[in-house]
């Protein structure tokens, strides 16, 4: 099992950064040290962010 198998987020997850921005996980990479790094899309731009700077975005409950 690799460290990517233990990644906290998966592609397609909506996440918040520690800076308060929201984005979608588009890809997951491994750093030279073997830690997961995420490509987060926000308004068409990609940011590459380490896992410790991300948190899950609460899912909205929509009325039917």
UniProtKB/TrEMBL annotation:
<protein>
    <recommendedName>
        <fullName>DUF4926 domain-containing protein</fullName>
    </recommendedName>
</protein>
